Amino acid sequence: xxxxxxxxxxxxxxxxxxxxxxxxxxxxxxxxxxxxxxxxxxxxxxxxxxxxxxxxxxxxxxxxxxxxxxxxxxxxxxxxxxxxxxxxxxxx
Length: 92
Known about the structure:
Elements: H1 3-15, E1 22-23, H2 24-30, H3 38-46, E2 59-60, H4 73-88
Parallel strand pairs: 1-2
Helix pairs in contact: 1-3, 2-3
């Protein structure tokens, strides 16, 4: 894993908690990168081998659309649905 990939994944993990989403553009800004770097950031997310531990499924397109996920878009949707449902459960 490159230093850039590590920076992207650690920033995502630190800024996008369980049940929350972000966009490629927002992640780009959090990293202090230019909008032109959004594709590089997408590439770093695509190379993530720890899909369940480092939450790249929480990154959406600028319009909120589901976009690329190494586990497939149905899995991405299921993970997001699971997280949002968990947040609605009463804590007792």
